[in-house]
Design a protein that fits this description.
60% helix; disordered C terminus; 427 residues; alpha+beta; 9% strand; six-stranded mixed beta sheet
Length: 427
Amino acid sequence: MTSLTVTGLARAHRWLRAHPLAADAFLAAATFVTVLIGASVSRYTDRHPPGSGFVLLAFLACACLVLRRRAPRAVLCATSAATLFEIVDIRGPAPHTQIAMSVVVALYTVASRTERPMAWRIAVVTVAVLTAGGMAFGMPPWYSQENLALLAWTGMAGAAGDAVRSRRAYVAAIEERAVRAERTREEEARRRVAEERLRIARELHDVVAHHIALVNVQAGVASHLMDSRPDQAKEALAHVREASRSALAELRATVGLLRQYGDPEAPTEPAPGLGVLAHLVDGFARVGLDVTLTMASTLPGGPGSGTDPAEAAAVLGRLPGAVDLTAYRLLQEALTNVHKHAGPGARAEVALLRGADRLLLTVLDDGAGPFPEAAEGRGGHGLIGMRERATALGGSCEAGPRADGTPGFRVRATLPLPGRAEPTLTP
């Protein structure tokens, strides 16, 4: 058998499984042809050829098999009644018991789709009734080949259906056990992950609480003895340095447990901030986005204002690390949205204003392209992430069309700057 033939048979099998009614119709037609062939080659055909009544009765009995999946017991009753009618009909010539092939198919279906006790009861009754009718009213003698064949075929149909039902139940039980085992493994894995997280949380708590308590105590001692006993103050500061070094080492070891094999190494470069704003602006300029930058600061003693991205750190002054990183990420996301959504030829205007207690960031564009989907409530995560970053620092971020009615989009963020209150140390 060639591979092309095997492929064709597999395709036909898949189609029949997907269309059970068509498969049953094909089976009914095949059974009808088998009945006619069996009746034609019977040893009694020369004396009693099958008539039109037998053909019609066989057709009706086999046609019932189309509904064998929907009503298996009703189909079994119909085919058995047709077979008994052909056997018991005393007005016609000697009966042709080949019509019982429809009963064989129906009995197999019932036995394969019914629980074992009920299936065996139905099979025994069917076999007994058909065999008794054949022996009593069929072709003599009562132990003739046709009567024994009727007993054998119906009995094998019930046994085959029971075997198929048992195999289906066995396979279903194996699949259920496999699913249950997989679910159990997943639950066990989640439980172990939760336990490991709890253990690591305890480790982190112990490490941080212990060493920070030591640092606090030693720092208080150093502050108290700085003027009167500088040698002891230096010793206390040495203890602070040692405690902080130990805390960092233990934290690195504990967090290292969370890193899986094959994960990339931790980055060694510092986190980006407004100090590298020039690289960000140059990157967008290389892709065709014209960015105009304006910076101003109200802090005394500073340059006051500027437009050169390389002078951002000098104009805005030193910012807290979290604020510096958040401002950089907000600018990065806002300019990315301008490049993606504002359309060709759009320009962006970036304004940074540093006050005593807050940093104001504004990004405007004059593009005529569609607004980002997140601004119109249709999804997207960029603007949502910008708001979350600003809110995490206690600030705010607004995004939407420009307020003056001109085409374009505006992003405005306010990031609070923490005060510089002197810490109070208690010796």
